[in-house]
Amino acid sequence: MGNPKYKRIMLKLSGEALAGTNGFGIDFDVVNRISQEIKEVVDLGVQVAAVVGGGNIWRGRDGRSMDRTTSDYMGMLATCINALTLQDSLERMGVITRVQTAIEMREIAEPFIRRKAVRHLEKGRVVIFAAGSGNPYFSTDTAAALRAAEIEAEVILLAKKVDGVYDSDPRINKDAKKFDKLSFYEVLEKDLKVMDSTATSLCKDNDIPIIVFALDEPGNIKRALCGENIGTLVGNL
Ligand code: GTP
Question: Which residue range or ranges hold the Aspartate/glutamate/uridylate kinase domain (predicted)?
Fold first, then answer.
């Protein structure tokens, strides 16, 4: 499989990734499998930061009849539940972790302090960033891009249900074509929805490449990290 190409990575997991096939809540078998994969990567000496979404519990857009900001704050709380779940699972496997939240809840976890997060990473701890960016109207993709820039991660691994970026939805169009590589410009111009446009622009402006790949396939985090062509690479090409 080769050696890891990156020393410090940001892993973005969607909330749905933790739900398994039932689409809602937390599937502990799935969480443990993801943790096992993260452990393998940590064991290679790679510094791992993670941002987890919250869509398996609550999505901002679920609250259609609600005040948008209230609904978004509920989504941020959902990411905290997922972050603690991942922390627990990783620590059961002997991986040392720290959770940092964008909204202070000191009894539960550390607040986000950039320099402390970097220090944790340097010590080989997995740092899980929770509560998104702490702001409504921003997605957890944007939080992942922001934190990746702040901690100087070399790449964002964007774990999805599909195995890359296609020119149309592969679940609907069987002739959909997968891209091996894409520029940020193309993603924005073609409105390809890899991440939302705020997150994509942040990565573009800060030159942080994104590898989009499927999480379902065991071993894929390590493969993506070792430069195997398993998904779509988005960058300033
Ligand atoms: P270093 O000693 O700097 O390497 O890092 P450390 O995280 O081990 O030190 P610290 O003494 O800050 O933290 C010890 C434990 O307390 C860790 O599990 C932290 O996650 C936790 N901790 C630190 N600050 C807070 C906080 O504000 N709230 C909560 N809930 N836990 C915290």
Answer: 7-213
Q: What is the pLDDT of residues 61-73, one digit of tens each?
A: 666 789 999 999 9
The number of folded domains in the chain is 1
Q: Determine the residue type at 67.
A: D
Residue nearest to atom 29 of ligand 1 (CA): 109
Structure tokens at 227: 């430069």
Of 16, 25, 24, 35, which is closest to residue 221 (Cα–Cα)?
35
| Percent of the chain topping pLDDT 70 | 98
Q: How far, CA to CA in Å, does 24 sit from each of 55, 110, 157, 206?
A: 8, 27, 23, 34
Q: Is the CB of 223 under 6 A from ligand 1?
A: no
CATH of the domain at 157: 3.40.1160.10
pLDDT tens digits along 177-204: 999 999 999 999 999 989 999 999 999 9
What residues are paired with 182 via a beta bridge?
Answer: 234
Distance 59 CA to ligand 1 centre (A): 30
